[in-house]
């Protein structure tokens, strides 16, 4: 036995606490003092634990064998047997059956497809060959999935290890093989992340007998290379051939002892190496660690006990018809509704859905993708705008021939364009209100047991939203009226009259370079081997072109379409179509792709389509606009004299510059107004 005989009873006390959690089938939620064994898959963790017991009892094989934490409780006893907490008192004297039970119990929780779980298996081993000791055997770290292992297995195992070792009350037994560079040790690397000072890490160096000739691990074992507060202990395990040949563990321990005594580099410290010494050190370290952490653990348990006793007292005289109880239950549900509503709008790190966009995310898309797109759709067609400017200038001059470009033409055209911003701005409010109503319905689902409460909650909240909707619409109309009330031609971003005369149409286009704007899957409809069919391609949109590939690896390029001269329009979906279809076409009626006049595309949802449209907008592909006045407008524009044409060009540049300022302000203020008056309110 160890030298801490007076404190030996501490380990069984902690064992009982661990058994309680195991019998409940839940992960350990208390920070119990314990030793966690970490290492890579081939480091020799299983052999170290089996050497402690003197029996072969752990599952072996390729890939992940330990898929649940194994809480191994070693208890000194005159007789030798094992028992599991989940088998309720059944004693195992055949340790081959112990191995089978570990495998069966692992499969029961995780299935047989190499999945892992953090719910521990508790195994007690009673033996005259052991010291009182408790260790938690954790899955070995791996880099590359093998066979049918899940692709994210490295991250899954890492998360489970961190769950145990990041607790300050956990000692870390970091097992590293001596025949690899210690600087690359997975066990020491992960231990250093949670224990940078090395205060609670115990190093175990295995495979000392497999090192290259002329090399040794003396610097490591003497704690000089990568120092740890609790030092390193070297062990020699059985080889794979020894295990397959069923070499007796007692004979292996004798061979280990002989190796250390006969090796010139380890002879002087042979009494501080080997499995028996490691077991003795761990017994002492765990006992001292429990003694050190016990006061804090006791305080935590007492706090939890008082809290639970208070709850028990609260339900002692419980009556279902108690009005106070009903009121409390109702207030709790209302409070939960508030929390859920806020979480759905604001987002939350702890409860993020992976299935669907939250209400807040959808509203964000409305603000930054759908709304800017609708604003641009309201802009006049270039030909139509020039025609209007020409008519306005001609009407202002009246019977006289104008020598100068009239200011009033600029003001009239700008006011007409600003008026058109009202419709998409009010539509944005409607879309946000619709989304909020959906969030309210979703958040009241937990009240299904109380239909009247749910109905009343939805009515009150919806009424409040509708009231604020009207206030917001009035405010947005006022924003438009404010823009109409005064043309600020001294704005710092305004081009000014002198610059407008010199500015050519071509220099007005914003240069983005050929940066990638968006990537994603789209269905191509009218270009297909089967009439009426569609095929999915991986599309890449840049500032200058649209390319599509066979898949996201972007190796097999199908085509690259220049964006110059392209427009975008909505198409009506078929009666049974689930997709929203839009088309790219040339404004001058040229073929877009081979013999096709337009390229018909669709995405999985309306949200995705809106997002793609916003991306095309950034690339300079604008929506189609209808010409309401027919062919006469072309004749009017064609009959302009050169002087009038120059005046039209000047006003056109001034209007374009001023509307950019107005659009920028509107894109900024409308979402802010909606946030302040509806959502935050």
SSE blueprint and pairings:
Blueprint: H1 10-24, E1 34-39, H2 45-53, E2 70-76, E3 81-84, E4 91-92, H3 95-110, E5 121-127, E6 133-137, H4 153-165, E7 170-177, H5 186-194, E8 201-206, H6 218-221, E9 232-234, H7 240-244, H8 249-262, H9 275-314, H10 323-346, H11 359-377, H12 382-397, H13 407-419, H14 422-443, H15 451-485, H16 497-502, E10 516-524, E11 535-542, E12 545-549, E13 557-562, E14 566-570, E15 580-586, E16 598-603, H17 606-618, E17 622-623, H18 632-638, H19 642-679
Parallel strand pairs: 1-6, 1-7, 2-5, 7-8, 8-9, 14-17
Antiparallel strand pairs: 2-6, 3-4, 3-5, 10-11, 10-16, 11-12, 12-13, 14-15, 15-16
GO molecular function: GTP binding; GTPase activity; microtubule binding
InterPro entries: Dynamin (IPR022812), Dynamin_GTPase (IPR001401), Dynamin_GTPase_CS (IPR019762), Dynamin_N (IPR045063), Dynamin_stalk (IPR000375), G_DYNAMIN_dom (IPR030381), GED (IPR003130), GED_dom (IPR020850)
Domain GED: 648-681
Give the DSSP E fraction (strand runs of 2 or more residues).
5-15%
Q: Whole-number average pLDDT?
A: 79
SS class: alpha/beta
- Report the major sheet: 9 strands, mixed
What percent of the residues sit in helical stretches (DSSP H or I)? 40-55%
| Tally of separate helices | 19
Q: Give the termini distance in whole angstroms.
A: 69 Å
Q: Extract low-pLDDT stretches.
A: 1-6, 504-512, 628-638
Order of strands across the widest beta sheet? 4-3-5-2-6-1-7-8-9
Sum up the overall morphology in one term.
Answer: elongated
Which radius of gyration do the C-alpha atoms yield?
A: 38 Å
Number of extended strands: 17
